[in-house]
Automatic annotation (TrEMBL):
GO terms for MF: electron transfer activity; heme binding; metal ion binding
Protein name from the UniProt record: Cytochrome c domain-containing protein
InterPro entries named in the record: Cyt_c-like_dom (IPR009056), Cyt_c-like_dom_sf (IPR036909), DUF1924_SHP (IPR015170)
Signal peptide: 1-35
SUPFAM superfamilies: Cytochrome c (SSF46626)
A Pfam family this chain is assigned to: DUF1924
Alphabetical UniProt keywords: Heme, Iron, Metal-binding, Signal
Residue intervals of the Cytochrome c domain: 55-145
Length: 157
C-alpha cells in the first residue's frame, strides 16, 4: 500500500515551526470563548433588551435583599452589601465579592453568569429569574463602587 504522507512509510512526519504556529493560531481561533467574553454592563444591557423594560437599581436592591417567600435571599450567601467575601448559607464555602467593582472577574464569562443565575435563582425563588430581575440586580451591583453608600444609591445604572 502506498504511503499517504510525504517521505514514504518509514519517514517520521515532522511539522515545521511555521506550520505549528498556524495550527495553534487556528486552534485558538476555533476554541469557544469561555472567560472574559463580556462585562457586567453588557450582561445588564442584554437582559434589559430581552425584557424590553428599563432597569431599576432600587428594584434590584430590594430583590437582592428579599426572601421571596423562601428561607434565603441573594444576600443570605453574598452578603449585604455584596462587596466582601462571604460564605454560602448551607455549605459554608467562601464566595468572592459579587459586586464587579470589588471583584473585576464577576460577570465576565457569559456561560458562568447564566449557570450561576439559573442555579442561585432556583435556590432563592424556586424558579429562574426573569431577564428584568437579572438586569435590575446588575444595575444595583454596578452602583456598588465603594464611593456611594449601598442604601443611598438610587436608580443609577
Amino acid at each position: 500500500m502506498p504511503a499517504l504522507h510525504h517521505g514514504g512509510m518509514n519517514t517520521p512526519h515532522t511539522t515545521s515551526p511555521v506550520h505549528m504556529a498556524a495550527l495553534l493560531a487556528l486552534a485558538f481561533a476555533l476554541a469557544p470563548a469561555h472567560a472574559a467574553d463580556t462585562t457586567a454592563a453588557s450582561q445588564m444591557q442584554r437582559w434589559s433588551d430581552v425584557s424590553g423594560k428599563p432597569v431599576s437599581a432600587e428594584r434590584g436592591r430590594v430583590f437582592f435583599n428579599s426572601r421571596h417567600g423562601g428561607e434565603w435571599s441573594c444576600a443570605s450567601c453574598h452578603g449585604n452589601p455584596p462587596t466582601t467575601s462571604s460564605r454560602h448559607a448551607s455549605t459554608g464555602k467562601t464566595i468572592a465579592p459579587l459586586a464587579p467593582a470589588f471583584n473585576p472577574e464577576r460577570f465576565t464569562d457569559t456561560a458562568k453568569v447564566d449557570k450561576w443565575f439559573r442555579r442561585n435563582c432556583k435556590d432563592v425563588l424556586s424558579r429562574e429569574c426573569t431577564p428584568v430581575e437579572k438586569a435590575d440586580v446588575l444595575a444595583w451591583l454596578l452602583q456598588l463602587d465603594g464611593k456611594t453608600p449601598p442604601q443611598a444609591a438610587k436608580d443609577k445604572p
